[in-house]
Each structure stands twice: as structure tokens, then as C-alpha cells.
Backbone:
């Protein structure tokens, strides 16, 4: 966790022009990561920039650790935390479906509205 040197806001990693930089959520100040951190993050951060839309599309199984988590109960093991992401199903006219994956047992399910 890193904080903005300017306004002390929380800084989040984002991908810009192929490099991971820290961006302040409050004032938008950017800060470059040192190379060691950059390498570590590169393997975990999906290609898309989830901060801009708040929508995460899961492409690869590897991306799972970069997904946001939410408190929801798993039906399989009663763990109360799961990763979630949105996926466009069938036609583009339909709203994307929200999927959950249990952080403990890996059980995946979709949310029906
Ligand atoms: Zn700031
Ligand atoms: Zn579970």
C-alpha cells in the first residue's frame, strides 16, 4: 500500500503504456514503481485497466489473483469471500453477468438478477 506524496491519498497500480505506475485516486498524481515491483505486478495485473471502468473481464485463469474480492457466501464450503468479475454473455445488448469464485475452494458460480 502506498500513499500519494502530494495529498496522502491512496495510490493504486495502473498500467500505462506497458508499464505499471502508481496513480493517486484523489489528485491523479502518478509515480513510477521501481523495476522490482514493476516485474512483480506485471505478472499479476491484467492487460485491461480495471480502474477506469470498474469492470473486470477475466481472460486467463492467471488473472484471478488480480480480481476484486467481495463478501459473499460460497454454497460449497461456506467461506464468505469470493473473487468476482463481469463477463459479457451471448448478445451485447444484455447486461454482463456477474461471476463469483470462492477464494477458498475455487467454486465458481454466476449471479442471476
Ligand atoms: Zn494525490
Ligand atoms: Zn468455497
Residues:
Amino acid at each position: 500500500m502506498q500513499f500519494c506524496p502530494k495529498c496522502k491519498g491512496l495510490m493504486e497500480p495502473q498500467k500505462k503504456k506497458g508499464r505499471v505506475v502508481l496513480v493517486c485516486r484523489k489528485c491523479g498524481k502518478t509515480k513510477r514503481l521501481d523495476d522490482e515491483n514493476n516485474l512483480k505486478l506485471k505478472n499479476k495485473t491484467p492487460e485491461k485497466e480495471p480502474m477506469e471502468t470498474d469492470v473486470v473481464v477475466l481472460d486467463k485463469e492467471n488473472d484471478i489473483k488480480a480480481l476484486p474480492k467481495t463478501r459473499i457466501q460460497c454454497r460449497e464450503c461456506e467461506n464468505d469471500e469470493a473473487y468476482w468479475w463481469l463477463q459479457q454473455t451471448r448478445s451485447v445488448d444484455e447486461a454482463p453477468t456477474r461471476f463469483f469464485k470462492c477464494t477458498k475452494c475455487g467454486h465458481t458460480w454466476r449471479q442471476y438478477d
Remarks:
- The chain has a mean pLDDT of 79.
